[in-house]
Amino acid sequence: MRKPPIRLPARRRRLDAQAQAAPSWRFWGLSVQVCTLATRRAASPLAQANHGAPGLDGVTVAAIAASGRDGLLAQ
C-alpha cells in the first residue's frame, strides 16, 4: 500500500488539533479542506490498490481508470 504525501497527514493533524482545542467549534466548508485536488490525486491510487467500492454515483474504480482518472479528479 502506498503512503499519502506528507502534507495530507499534516492537514489532518491540524484539523484534529483545532477540533480538540475547541470542541464546540463547527467546521463549515470542511470539504474544501479535505477534498483538494492533491487529496483526490493521493486517494485515487490508494482506492485502486485496495479495489475500492463504487461511490454514490455507482462509478467503479475500473470505469474511472478506463475513462481517464485526471478528468474525473478535476471535476
**Percent of sequence in beta strands:** under 5%
Alpha plus pi helix count: 5
Give me the strand/helix succession. Answer: HHHHH
Sheet bearing the most strands, described?
Answer: none
| Principal-axis shape | elongated
Q: How many discrete structural domains? A: 1
Report, as a whole number of angstroms, the end-to-end distance. Answer: 26 Å
Regions with pLDDT < 50 over 5+ consecutive residues? none
Kindly provide the radius of gyration, computed on alpha-carbon positions and rounded to a whole number of angstroms. 15 Å
Structural classification? mainly alpha
Mean pLDDT: 78
Kindly state the number of beta strands. Answer: 0
Helical content band: 55-70%
Summarize the structure.
The chain is built from five helices and no strands. With 75 residues, it is an all-alpha fold.
